[in-house]
Amino acid sequence: MKIGIFGTGIVGSTIGSKLVSLGHQVMMGSRTIDNKKANEWVKANGIHASQGKFSEAASFGEIIFNCTSGFGALESIGSAGEANLNGKILIDISNPLDFSKGMPPSLFVCNTDSLGEQIQNKFPYLKVVKTLNTVNCNVMVNPSLVPGEHDLFMCGNDEIAKEKVNEILKNWFGWKTVIDLGDITNARATEMILPLWVRLYGKFQSPNFNFRIVK
Questions:
Q1: Which of 23, 43, 100, 169 counts the most CB atoms within 10 A of its CB?
Q2: Contacts of 16 (CB under 8 A, 6+ apart)
Q3: Angle, helices 10-21/36-45, rounded to nearest 10 degrees
Q4: What is the spatial distance between Cα 157 and Cα 119, in angstroms, rounded to a whole number?
Q5: Tens of pLDDT along 170-187?
Q6: Domains of the chain with CATH codes
């Protein structure tokens, strides 16, 4: 499958490298035609890896992973162009983290709104599925880094899109339990887990942990 990745940071490169290793063709998108980080990622991942502007990655991908920073998400997606994104699934991994006052970060949107909702509302032609945003990028693509049973969350308005993303999470990345919380308003809850996640990271001094729901 052809996959578009928005974002050249550690999340985008980790997701992209995993997808290439599975035999998919992946284009990493950025603001410029010749991004240094994207070029380095392409060189490290071989013939199935390529890079271009957001618009090119959007046109290339049958499915898009949004791995941009929270502050840059709306602008990055908007620059990709409606014609290149129309009707496609966008797996949104971004979080509304504000580091302007240092650590720990605050959320620049929460409680009555979420970044996931803002993306869906601004780009109604996309099928936004929020997931993977509550774990470290290495755990995203290799859940076995955390021993035992643990859970991933997902939400979005399109049921067929969520079914497809559920297959991707389980068959490509190895997740056993994916909890569908419902529509995209549930992104408020998963994004608001991040302040707790950051505190736990500081406590454990390791990002390789996750949550398990016991009932």
A1: 169
A2: 3, 5, 26, 28, 41, 45, 49, 65
A3: 20
A4: 12
A5: 999 999 999 999 999 999
A6: 2-204 (3.40.50.720)
- Quick one: tokens of 107? 């959320």
Structure tokens at 200: 């736990």
Tokens of 156: 């979005």
Question: Using CA atoms, how far apart are residues 158 and 160, in angstroms rounded to an integer?
Answer: 6
Q: What CA dihedral angle connects 151, 168, 97 and 126, to 10 degrees? A: -130
Give the tens place of pLDDT for each residue, 143-159.
Answer: 999 999 999 999 999 99
Return the residue matching tokens 């308005």.
157
Whether the CA torsion 86, 88, 89, 94 is positive or negative: it is negative
Whether the predicted model's global pTM rises above the 0.90 cut = yes
